[in-house]
């Protein structure tokens, strides 16, 4: 029994440790966000609604079928329903009917409603897919922000480790009287500043992790973390394409553009539906009915039983009905005008969405070039700052530079390293945006 309890305890501990050690990759974050986002689930339900609307529209093309029945008892004066003769007796009556109606012509409104319902389902799918695209980009941005903050924190800790070594050496020199105590105080101030940077860096990592977890709608912030990898600049040949080429491809498949285009098609169907109201409506109908009354007397000695009466008094009626709209208070005319205005608005919005897409791609294209140049400049600056720092350290070690100037040289290296990390991840994200416009899935590989 003791062995079983110990084993169970170890399994639980290992399970908890395994859950806490879970590290998320970018692909896992994107997939999880798309599969668990509440807004996506709401849009998916909207899509299901459009499918129901399509079924409704198809049903309007079919004939309906309805049955009705009634039973009543009359005491005193009444009309016998079987012979329309007045009677003054108590009678029990039963009536039943079966009816069907079908629209034969309504200006093709039902046909256009069915086509509109199909287009609306397609539009809802585009809207859902466009939301997924936005979430993928937002998650990628948040993920890269976590990596950037983590890398900056590593740099801060490495810088502090170097300063600790310098601080230890300076203390020994101060104790031996080789350098003044002011140099020690200057190095201690530098170390304190770097400690503060580490604390701030840890806070930025935590906040960025929380932001990413919230995008994924994960509430266990403390145990949520991403894979700790230092990503290099990913290879890409996206700039081999012009911004115009990227736009031409994006406009042919982007879900936001397809959604905007489908809204134009929906507005065109709405106009056709509105115009259909000016035409006459032709419908057909058929009815079958029968009745029974216990006050019935039949000639020829026929038994007025319930079954016999149903067969004797049954009947069929059928026909067609034509309704011609003549004047309806300008509602039809104004409905057509509103539909035309909505169509023009949809067309303008479609053109605006294409212009916005082209503008975003042009901006992304320029950003990729600009941020890469900024990254290259930051790399060159860091290399120069390190050379200057090494030179300053050599002079400081032999007493030719005071601690203040040496700490300034170290601070410039710290800032240059932070700039390299920042510009690197800024460039990576802009690159991924441009690739995403070109149809390349988000990945850091």
Automatic annotation (TrEMBL):
It is found in: Cell outer membrane. One of its GO terms (molecular function) is porin activity. Gene3D superfamilies: Outer membrane efflux proteins (OEP). Keywords: Cell outer membrane, Membrane, Signal, Transmembrane, Transmembrane beta strand, Transport. One of its GO terms (cellular component) is efflux pump complex. Pfam families: OEP. Residues 1-19 form the signal peptide. It comes from the Bacteria. The keyword Protease does not apply. SUPFAM superfamilies: Outer membrane efflux proteins (OEP) (SSF56954). Belongs to the outer membrane factor (OMF) (TC 1.B.17) family. PANTHER family: OUTER MEMBRANE PROTEIN TOLC. This is Outer membrane protein. It comes from Maribacter vaceletii.
